[in-house]
Each structure stands twice: as C-alpha cells, then as structure tokens.
Write a structure and sequence with these properties.
alpha+beta, 8 helices, elongated, 295 residues, four-stranded mixed beta sheet, Alpha-lytic protease prodomain-like
Length: 295
C-alpha cells in the first residue's frame, strides 16, 4: 500500500474520532455553534472517503481506454470536497437561523468546550500532516483535505471563543451569530478548494518556479542541440507532463539525437520523478530562434 493511501485511510479514522468528540460536545451543551462544528466534521469524513477512492483510482496504471493514466481522478475528489463543504455551510446557516428565532441556553459549557478543544487539537495535528505529506507526495486530494481541515481548525478556535463569550456574558444570540460566521468562512473555503481543483482539470501549466527549473535543465543538458521551443507543461495529480520541440543540426544522426533526448529526460526526471516527457526532434531549418536556447 502506498504512503498516499495510508494517509488517506488515516484521514477517515481521524475524521470519525473528531466527529464523535464534537457531537458529544454539542449534545452536552445544546450550542448551535458547536453543532455547526460537528456538521463540518461529517463533511470531513465524507470527503476523506472520497479522497481515498480517488487516490486509489489515480494510482491505476494507464490502459487502452486511458493511455495517459487516471491521475485526474484526484482533482474530481477535490471538486466534490468543495461542493460538500458548501452544502455543510448551508446546513449550518439553516440551524443558525432557527437559533436566532429561538435562542437556546447553553448547558455544561465547561465540559463541552473542553471536549471540543481536544477535537480541534487533533484536527490541527492531522491538518499539518496532510498538507506537508500531500505536497511531498504531490497529491491534490490530500492537500485539499488538509486545507479544508485548516479551515475547520480556525472555525473551531472561533467557536470556542464565541461560545465562551456567550456563556460569560449571557448573550445567547452570540451562539447563532458565531455559527453564521463559521458558515461564511466554510463557504469561502469550499470555493477556494473548487477553484484550485478546476485549474488542474483545465490542464493548467506548472507553477512559474517549476517551469523556470524545467527551462534551465533543458538549456544546460541539451548540449549538441540548438534550441528547444514550443515548451508546454501541465500537471495531473503527482504527474507532470512536459513536451517540446528540440532543434538539432541537420547532420545529427538519429542515435546522437536520441542520446541528447535521453540526457535531458534523465535530468528532468531527477527534478520531477513522475514526469512524462515527449520530445519532438527537428532539423535546424525549423528553428524559431525563441524558446530555450542551449547553453
């Protein structure tokens, strides 16, 4: 089992633990703000399951029907996660509106807030693990899950402070008001997750820094060639697709041109291990005198 799959499975277990703690905190207090925190945790579990399925599909090897692999499955998972986040926010708004109309007295606040604080601490630790490992493994699903959890951690901190104020001041209206703020924050988080995932589905190029590294490697390792032009990149999950035209002297043999391509590919894969590279070799009269000039 891959490291990505193990982390995705861990997310489900952590999500269930946090959901149980937050549900207990809500049942003890009756706070609608704590209920909103628990509702978001239900989404956490659902999205963790969706991420696990997507990662499993994304790791399938290329086949006849999908010659470029199944890597984009993770982007679909992230889009689904964003949609579920928005649904959770709407449910929270509904509960907050009812609570505005009929404010509720918060009971056993101390114990409930303590339990919710423990749940928030667990989420904070796991959020750090997901984002750090997701970036290392280049998994959009894990990174999206981690960013969602980060929003949950921030929301939980706000809920703890707000419910504490509602109890100490006696202003019951603070409880639903805080739940509404949590819902707005969650809506923004859901939109950001969807937007970042759509960029991958639309074959967005690699970040500028990565592109600069690719250009530098080509320029340094293409000794014997003249230039490289029409460089294109895109990313899908952990895989980066790179293709470009390499111009060589018209008298260069096929074997020599192949050696140059092999050298460039080896260096690019050292920088991007999961890269899939396509190089189209052209004679010098095809040169555009632009793109990447060989050092």
């Amino acid at each position: 089992m891959s490291s990505t799959m193990k982390i995705a499975m861990g997310s489900i277990l952590v999500g269930l633990l946090v959901l149980s703690l937050k549900t207990l905190a809500w049942m003890l207090t009756g706070s609608v703000a704590l209920l909103s925190d628990a509702l978001e945790s239900i989404v956490n579990v659902a999205t963790a399951i969706a991420a696990l399925i997507a990662i499993r599909v994304a790791q399938r090897p290329a086949d006849h029907a999908h010659p470029y692999g199944h890597h984009k499955a993770e982007f679909f998972s992230a889009v689904l996660e964003g949609v579920l986040i928005i649904v959770a926010a709407l449910l929270i708004m509904r509960e907050a509106w009812h609570a505005f109309q009929s404010p509720r007295v918060i009971e056993q606040a101390g114990l409930g807030l303590a339990i919710n604080a423990v749940a928030g601490a667990v989420n904070a630790v796991w959020c750090w693990v997901l984002i750090r490992q997701g970036r290392r493994l280049r998994s959009p699903a894990l990174v999206a899950d981690g960013k969602h959890l980060l929003t949950d951690v921030i929301s939980s901190g706000g809920v703890l402070i707000g419910v504490g104020l509602a109890v100490t001041t006696g202003w019951a209206v603070l409880d639903p008001a805080l739940a509404m703020l949590v819902a707005v924050n969650i809506l923004w988080s859901g939109w950001k997750v969807i937007a970042s995932s759509l960029s991958g589905l639309m074959d967005e190029a690699v970040p500028d820094r990565t592109l600069a590294d690719i250009r530098s490697i080509i320029a340094d390792k293409a000794n014997g060639a003249i230039e490289a032009h029409d460089l294109r990149t895109r990313h899908a999950g952990a895989v980066t697709f790179i293709d470009f035209h390499l111009v060589v002297d018209g008298q260069t043999t096929v074997s020599r041109a192949h050696e140059i391509c092999d050298r460039i590919e080896a260096s690019l894969k050292a920088r991007l291990p999961d890269a899939q590279i396509t190089i189209h070799v052209e004679p010098e009269h095809k040169a555009k005198h632009s793109g990447v000039l060989v050092i």
